[in-house]
Amino acid sequence: MEPMLYAFYIVLGIAFMKMVILLALCKGNFSNLTHAITAFFSVLVRGKTPTTEIKTSISKEDSKVNADLIWPLYLLQREARLIDFLLEDISSAPDDLVGAGVREVHAKCRKYLLEKLTLQPIISKEEGSKVSIEEGFNPNKIMLTGFLEGLPPYNGILKHQGWDVLSSQIPEVTESFRKNPVLVQAELEIPQK
Amino acid sequence: MANSRFSIGIDLGTTNCALAYIDSLKESEFAEILSLPQIVQPGVYEERKLLPSFLYLPQKGEFQNGALNLPWREEKLFAVGEFAKTHGALVPTHLVSSAKSWLCHTAVNRRDKILPWKASTDSNKVSPLEASTLYLKHLVDSWNAKFESTDIELKLEKQDVVLTVPASFDADARDFTMEAAKEAGFKKVSLLEEPQAAFYSWLLANKDNWRDQVQEGDVILVIDVGGGTSDFTLIAAESDQGNLFLNRLAVGEHILLGGDNMDLALAYELSRQLGTTNIKLDLAQMVALSHACRTAKEKLLADKELRSWPMTILGRGSKMISGTIKCELERSILEKVLLEGFFPLCDKDAQPTLQTGYGFQEIGLPYAADAAITKHLAHFLVKHHKAIEQKSSKRKDIKTTSGVNVILFNGGVFKSPLLRQRILDNLETWSKSPIKMLTHQDLDLSVAIGAASFGIAKRGKGIRIKGGAPRTYYIGIESSAPAIPGFPRPIKALCVVPFGMEEGTESDIPGHEFGLIIGQKVAFRFLSSSTRKNDTLGTILDEWDDEVHEISPLQLTLESPEKNASMVPVYLHSKISDIGTLELWCIGKNSKQKWKLEFNVRENNTNP
């Protein structure tokens, strides 16, 4: 047999097999198949894919998630894209891009926190200096580590001065967010006509 | 009318609005700034000192119902302020910006719903007048939300309000501003020019010793470069029997050129460079880049040692880091674009060119073609050199030459010492003698503060700058030459308001009587000049060069007591009201009937 003819039979065979599989898969629903065939010839003839409309149906039901817990994360995403940063796999991204991106996200998060919260160190002393803690201290505010023994006063080295929040200007959760809390909104850009 | 408890000053800026107030019950006079609640993201409002002058008109269903509500009003279908500005930058077809520049744009009908300019015809639009009204209304509501509950007498409608306009605003743009103020609910309002307001703010801060800082014969340049406009004013310090007083000598033309153009120019220059490495930025990235440019510009201008400042444009979508674009603003670029583009060293007789420079041109608004602010300044000073010389000849200190010798900077752009120095360098080269700089505190809020302070000064409690009409105004009279096809009939200009005509004065225009036809609309051509300062009431100009400009025509519909059309002999009467607006009247010679001439907003673009 001629090698060319041989090749032709193989291609025809594959095409037939594909047809059978496709027909089996589409279970009598020919519209997708028609779409695929149109697309195939459209690419073959005009060299481009026809635009496909993806119709999305987004649930409008109220969410069961506790919106109060998501809200601060949502705000930091809006202000500084913190969630985009945390969810992206950056293990193989070049260091200079990570550095540049972090600087950007960090600067915006920092600005937002300093703007919205009035902060004050819990222990206003240099970290590394000697501090004595009297009896009756607030364990919510001070954590003790190291060789902890006996009763107060405890003498130790200040490792972290802590932050107390004196006031917060973080906005209240909105009504619509409470019904539909999201972490990051989807974005669709409409091209110029 | 009795004085209100508060004197309120409002800066209705091209890019930001602010409201300052002085409480007359407090011992010492100091201005406070009203916090302005505004939407910052859907459903969230915050208080800010500045209200960005941006209006966002959302598409139906774009936001959840009630997401744009404010404490004082529900079912808001628009947003004004911070969110409008930031979100609108990403959706330009729904954003109204620079409404104030449209308000003084004589080529469009300012009552037509033309904004957003970029929107398609079927979308929701507003007129420049409506947009300005909405900004003012927002200020009214913010005030009332704070004070109304305490005492109904403290409502803004019952307070004395001073609203600022650019010195370069024409009589009709001032009228539109008043109309917007009335629509927004203001009742006791007067106008003040912005550079003067900046000067009042300086006077307030130096009220005990300003006389030590300014002497007779000083000519003070107030240079105000805001986000979108540049405005120049000259104030002379004069003396009357030993008493020092201040006299506004001249105001500049309206120049649509400001700090925002500078950030945009830098962003375009950088995106052009990125383009050479095949990186194309989309709309959102361009917005991010121009914000980054603003920061980089401020850092580099503040520290001479820095050679460049790194900038990061985060990738869009969820691949933020891997899509990040890194670039740098180098000092050489900054200097090329900013110092050479906007603030070049130039000769004192430099003329701004008509070719496109570094500023950006958007179709619609008549942006300045030449971005060189220093050339516009040189041009302004040359135009008024006679007045400057005359006033500075009174100077006792003979070491300084004639010319501007004192300067007051205003506008956020001049937070940069480098740019202030650049202006000083130019001025000192031109006048060959040192320039004294007056300093004041807050370059963003000084106009509002100064306006509130002027409100107190008006009550007789402080020095006032003598101002009066900033221009000479003329009515065009068609000459009786035979018509030549293709040529408009030449007109003569009759002076109806001389330069410096004071507020609260009025006068008949002598020597001219018109025959007026009753029962139909009559139009008058209206002209102005900022340089012809010696024309008096009734002066007629047969010809003039480019020192006289035509502005919006005036029109008059005559109400006739009789049914049949007839001709009434009238004479003209002009008046500058206490609030600083211009009124022209036709008065019947026999009947004493009066008709007011109104500005006619053009119905089509006759003067693009």
Record the SSE blueprint.
The complex is a heterodimer of chains A (193) and B (608).
Chain A: H1 3-26, H2 30-46, H3 67-80, H4 82-87, H5 95-116, E1 117-121, E2 130-133, E3 154-157, E4 163-168, H6 175-179
Chain B: E1 6-12, E2 16-23, E3 31-33, E4 36-41, E5 44-48, E6 51-52, E7 55-56, E8 79-80, H1 82-88, E9 95-96, H2 99-103, H3 128-147, E10 160-165, H4 171-183, E11 189-193, H5 194-205, H6 210-213, E12 219-225, E13 230-240, E14 243-251, H7 259-276, H8 283-302, E15 308-313, E16 325-330, H9 331-340, H10 373-383, H11 385-392, E17 406-410, H12 417-431, E18 436-438, H13 446-461, E19 465-466, E20 472-478, E21 491-497, E22 505-517, E23 521-529, E24 540-541, E25 549-557, E26 567-576, E27 582-588, E28 594-599
Parallel strand pairs in B: 1-10, 10-11, 12-17, 14-19, 17-18
Antiparallel strand pairs in B: 1-2, 2-3, 2-6, 4-5, 7-8, 7-9, 12-13, 13-14, 15-16, 20-21, 20-23, 21-24, 22-26, 23-25, 25-28, 26-27, 27-28
Helix pairs in contact in B: 3-4, 5-13, 7-8, 7-9
Notes on the structure:
The complex is a heterodimer of chains A (193) and B (608). Chain A folds into three domains: 3-46; 63-116 and 172-184, no CATH class; 123-161, no CATH class. Chain A is built from six helices and four strands. Helices cover 46% and strands 10% of the residues of chain A. By secondary structure, chain A is mainly alpha-helical. Mean pLDDT of chain A is 80; it is low at 47-51. With 608 residues, chain B is α+β, with helices and mostly antiparallel strands. Chain B has four domains: 6-187, 2-Layer Sandwich (Nucleotidyltransferase, domain 5), CATH 3.30.420; 194-254 and 371-460, Nucleotidyltransferase, domain 5 (2-Layer Sandwich); 259-340, Alpha-Beta Complex (Actin, Chain A, domain 4); 472-599, no CATH class. Chain B has 13 helices and 28 strands. In chain B, helix 7 packs across helix 8. Chain B is globular and about 85 Å long. The two termini of chain B are 43 Å apart. The A-B interface holds A 78, 81, 84-85, 87-88, 90, 93, 96-98, 100-101, 103-105, 169, 171, 174-177, 184, 187, 189 and B 40-46, 64-67, 282-284, 310, 312, 314, 316-322, 324, 326.
